Amino acid sequence: MPPNMADWLPPEHLVWFVIEVIDQMDTGGFHRLSQRGGVGRQGYDPDMLLTLLVFAYACGERSSRRIERLCVDHVAFRVACGDDAPDHTRIARFRADHQDEFVEVFAQVLRLCARQGMGKFGTIAIDGTKIAANAAKGANRSPDTVRRQAARIAEDIAANIVAEATATDQAEDVAAAARGGGNDDDLPPGFADHSRRAANIKRALDELDRQDAEHAAQDTADAQRAADLLRRVQAGQAPTGPVPAGVDPVAYHRARVSRHQQRYADLDGVAGQAASQARREAKRMVKRAEEALRKAQQQAADGRVDRRGKAARKRDAREQRARARGGTGRVVNTTDPESRLMTEGSGGGTVQGYNVQFGVTDDHLIVGVHVSQDANDAHCYAPTLASVTEHAELLGQHIGLVLADAGYFTEENLTSPGPDRLIAPGKNHAVAADAQATPTTGPPPPDLDPYDTMRHRLRDPKNAEKYKRRGALSEPVNAHAKDRIGLRRFARRGLAAVTSEAVLVAAAVNLNRLHTAHSTG
């Protein structure tokens, strides 16, 4: 072997670049939490462990056991760890103990990218992808099953605690005699397994309680929305969006039809190109409102009127779909209770996992990360944009335009404060087809609701052309994270832990792009 590790690899190799990057970072947070002295073996340098972990992620290696083996038989990994290989438990513990510090690593990598002229915030694309949890779908249980298991464990503990203690003492005495005396402080395997099982059930029960509180908050929000709708209708405004809780769907849609018909009548006889375009818009909305009214009237005639709020209707629909597939409806996972059963992609398959959101710049730099338990993207726009905005301000940048697909097409996302946005009402091909078939020019009429305002904007060929960039920005980054970094299944469990891992993956993706720019610059 060469006497100098610097001779092992070419100077442009990624490992040397990662070492240089970590050397430029402020890693004080990692050092504050690390024990380097005292009783026992001297601890590993936090900078070395951080370098090893970041390099491993950049190479698509996220298993602590695999990283340990590579530190023995792979030259680049031996360089990263200074030829002093840590075991997999130390690597895993470092990753778990410093999960909050990885957010700062992500931010510092962004600063380094900005120094290289990267990070074009003129256009931002937001998109989500489903990542499997470190838990099997087979570990899902109904709330009743979880509560029965919890009660059974409590009964077992009460009934067997004395017998288990006696048996344990006897086993320890036999083991001590075989060793020639002494104590054994390790927990018996059965007790350890029992404790772990009880802890998992406790976490599942806590998650069920949290979900119940969340559902109650959603129902309260629906009730507040109904009261707000009543005030708006009384003020002569046209209602928009889904029917709120407690509102008669027929009356709701009849009010919409009446309002749009009045608007169409007000435009009758008005000359000019703008008025002609406004009449076409009004006519489209009248037809859409009339169709919704006919559907509501048919449901009322069939006795299928549902006056619950949107959140309650969606929960019921999910449970019905689950039962139709042979399931039990609402479930909680006893391995990772914070994970959720989600539909993956357009194929209709399901994954036990999390919804990972990335905000991506025009030059494919990840500048925002958010991990959600929501199966759809509707409530992920605002927190992901908040993450993007935070890092834009950190770099002194301004967000010009945000692009998002139909999963984010809600009134809240269309009207929330923030930068200009184009959010599609449907599939990409439908957006392009509408822009060709019924193109618009100029700003939308001021009395359009938020949904039709966005439809009007996306039928403008210029905006439709801008929207085409969405897939070209977000999808390559998602593919990079999944295929090159290997983020197809999280290594850790729990929302906070997987969020930390997603942030570390984002930093690795950006570091690879920075290395490429540095090598070719």
Summed up:
The protein has helices at residues 14-24, 28-32, 46-58, 64-73, 75-80, 88-97, 101-115, 143-179, 189-234, 249-267, 273-301, 310-324, 381-394, 411-415, 428-437, 450-458, 461-467, 469-484, 495-520; strands at 123-132, 140-141, 332-333, 340-344, 349-360, 366-372, 401-404, 420-423. It is of the alpha/beta class and 521 residues long. The longest helix is centred in the middle third of the chain and has 46 residues, at 189-234.
Can you offer a commentary on this structure?
With about 525 residues, this protein is of the alpha/beta class. Among the domains are: about 5-100, no CATH class; about 125-135 and about 335-495, no CATH class. It is about 60% helix and about 10% strand. The protein contains 19 helices and eight strands. The two termini are about 30 Å apart.
Query: What quaternary form is this?
Result: single chain
- Helix and strand composition category: alpha/beta
Write the H/E string, N to C.
HHHHHHHEEHHHHHEEEEHEHEHHHHH
Number of strands: 8
The helix content is 55-70%
Number of helices: 19
- Intertermini distance: 32 Å
Weakly predicted, low-confidence segments? 179-193, 324-328
CA-atom Rg in angstroms: 29 Å
Residue-averaged pLDDT: 80
Largest sheet at a glance? Answer: 6 strands, mixed
β-strand amount: 5-15%
What is the 3D shape?
globular
